[in-house]
Amino acid sequence: MSIPLQLDITYHVVGSVQVCRFAGVQVCTPATCKHANLPHAPYNPPMLILTHENGDFDAVASLLAAHKLYPNGRPLLPRRVNHNVEQFLALYWDIFPFLRPTEWKRQRVERLILVDTQHITVVRGLISEPQVQVFDHHEPKEARKKWAYCIEPLGAATTLLVEKIKAAGLSITPEEATLFLLGIHEDTGSLTYAATTARDARAAAWLMEQGALQAALLRYLRIPFTDIQRELYAQLLKNVRWLEIGGQIIALTTAVAPPAFDEQISPIAHRLRDVLQSAALFVLVKMGSQNVQLVARSRSKQVDAAVVARAMGGGGHKQAAAANIDSPSLTAVSAQIESILPNAVTPISTVADLMSYGNVHTISATATIAQADALGQKMGHEGYPVIDMQHGRLVGLLTRRAIDRAMAHKYGDRTVRTIMQAGRVTVLETDSVERVQQLMVSEKWGQIPVVTAEQDMPLVGIVTRTDLLTHLFQPKSDTAVSMRRLLESQFSPPLWQMALAIGQMAAELHLPLYFVGGLVRDALMHKSPTDLDMVVEGDAILLALSLQKKYGGHAHVHERFGTAKWSLDTAVWQKIGTDENGTQIEPMNTDKDRKNQRSSVQSVYDDLPDSIDFITARAEFYDKPTALPEVESGSIKSDLHRRDFTINTLAVRLDGAHLGELIDFYNGRYDLKNKTLRVLHSLSFVDDPTRILRGLRLEQRLNFHFDPRTKELLNSSLSLLGRLSGARIRHEIELALLEKNPAKVMNRFGAAGALAHISPTLYWHSSAKTAMERLAALQQDAVWGKIASSAPALLTRFGVWMLSLQADTQAEGMDRLMVRNSTRAVVDGAVAAMAALESLPEAAAASVVERALRPFKPPSLLIVRAVLGRSPLLDRYYGEWRLVQTAVDGRDIRKLGLPPGPAYGQILERLRGERLDGRVQTDGEELALLQRLAADILGQTGRPSEPPLQNDPP
User: Fold this and answer.
1) Which of 81, 158, 743, 891 is deepest in the core (most CB within 10 A)?
2) pLDDT tens-digit profile of 283-305?
3) d(CA 763, CA 749)
4) How far apart, in whole angstroms, are the C-alpha atoms of residue 410 and residue 416?
5) pLDDT tens-digit readout, 57-67
6) Residue 278 to residues 189, 243, 597: CA-CA distances in angstroms?
7) 300-303 — which CB contacts under 8 Å span 24+ positions?
8) CA 680 to mean position of chain CA atoms
9) Taking 70 as the threshold, does the pLDDT of residue 623 lie above it?
10) What's the sign of the alpha-carbon dihedral 331, 337, 340, 342?
């Protein structure tokens, strides 16, 4: 093998030994080496690190970062790099290991690393099918053999490689850190582009810690145009054409490059994008006679720049893409781009996607400001449309700020018309979100009514600043499709088919329909729901009646509350699960275990709910702390706003094309992910202190934690529990006792001070926990198993808790909780049974025990058994002695001539006692005793006795 001497031969350390190499290739053998008599490494073909042409800072920084990870790889610059990159490299060239294409000498290349691209540029010596490792942040293309991929959706490819450098513990110089920082900042627009992630920001912060020079950002990312760039920029700005596609405003501009133009177009496109402020920008520049360059930039999630670039033979990602087009006609390429654009624009969001439907609170123009103030105090909204009631039209907007200022000036008796923002600013459901944003900026209306095309009144709904901000900036972590798949995997097939059928009916009636609260929360936590309670934005009763008409069952409606309960039977479930051809529908379900459990057609309908509740979305208003709220129909947003914790404000829309859309106004998904319980506002516990108990219950059930502010608000509101009615408190405690681990929840109630604030007589003792554990164990007991399994868990658990309290406080505690008479009777029975049992000696006769415990019902005795843990007398009584009966009855006594009266009971009691105590063991012995007892009684009364019974023993 002959290697020219002009090649730089260097020594490299392998382990503790130096070897003579050039770029990893052995250049001589030990016998012929003239550099040193040293061992030599085996042949290792060169590995190149490549990126895309027209390299920007992200591409070049990625080359360097990959070299840091793979020191044997040679970072080969593209033939063209951007002007600002060239300026940077000119200053720092000597300290970086880059090779220019002219410096590359043809060698056999079998291995490549591609950074910030998935396309191989032409390299001399490259074999036809090399091994390739890709590091990129663009959308992956079709996988190829011998290629390994590391692709993640980040703002910059540099971020991905810097993370690996940091994880490997490699050190970097300030100059290297500066280049890496330039790469991240240029491709993320200094962390402002939509594709930017928190990982980009963290990587940038780490680079600053490593000494990256921030001054370089201003110097190399804001380079002034050259004269020839300014000339092209002016031409492009002059030739802009505005297109509206799918509700998106797109700028398309063309120009012919000036003679001898040899600059980059990307910086010019960046400047145009910032100036034009369009949703997307497509720049076409004719370079020479046969080439047109495309640079595409998108600011909107609805416009995918890469779709256009790929169609023209190029590539990139959604926000930035490019292509070199072989064409002599700039006009033809422009027309082709225009024809492709509809494929790159997804349907724009409309007012209907973010507005609040339902009852819009308005105010009359002739109302007084004092009346408006009262309305504002009640509703809490920031603005109210003002209506001319006489003519039924919108005439202005009244804001909370205007009301407060007027009231401060004692203007309460003046009319709303004197302080409102006069005008008529409205939108239609079909208007774009951009129009809403423009109106809010230009008209200064923070709440814009939604009307029909024909008339103002009645208002269809309203869209607020909060709605707009949520829509624009709240992260969408799940698509509707993925949310639908998640729900489908959690539901049993019949339940999911029912949800689809109801959603289809709601779509036909134009009624937005939602799963709300705990059902959505549990589904996101991969817990299968068993019920299908739904919230309807509009007329819940109409939906229920329509379902009854189509599928059967019976709809029980409550006009006053706007609710309906649709009662179901097997016929309804079967009809729901059958298509138009009479074939049973088998919805897709990824839960294979659930499908395997269905052994027959009938089993499909086992354990399905027998009814579905439909609730009209409503708003709640609290006149004073702890009072029950006023309720009226409202929007889904107002319905969610009335809920307790953010994790319970999640909703999933179900009607028609909206199926699977996740609604998250209050970042509930974020808190769910972080296992955090957070109230929606600082007066939440004041409005409804029962939320304290619900929060503590959820905390224990889900193993979540309160965020610091919520914990502070909860502790400061504990005293309000004492002002709640016993019935409301009892309901929350009953829910706690029905939890899977009730003792854990009740213990938390006690530890938090909630029970003591409800009543000083209430507390939680560890003995109740032990008793509840015994209750569960007794379900498997031979004696107590039947009653332990059949007795209501709520009843027995409550009884166990009451018996753990001091005897003199039990009655007072039940008074405070307004315990139902039936429950109280069982608890009182348990208290009395406990006392009766404790009064009995250990050697008490069976008849004595039986008479003492006979008055008490089985649930009361079960409670006592759970509290005591072990009681031989109670076990024998319940399992044996209470079942003992006499062989004779009143008819047998009458045959002996004894007239009916108190003596019958006394005789039977005596016979049963003798049986229990073993002194009478056979039916014959019992009949003999009966005859003697009857004879004694008859002898005392002087009446003649009748002949003995024919079956008397001899």
Assistant:
1) 158
2) 999 988 889 999 999 888 788 99
3) 8
4) 14
5) 999 999 999 99
6) 16, 10, 55
7) 300/248, 301/194, 301/346, 302/246, 302/247, 302/248, 302/345, 302/346, 302/347, 302/348, 302/349, 303/248, 303/250, 303/279, 303/344, 303/345, 303/346
8) 16
9) no
10) negative
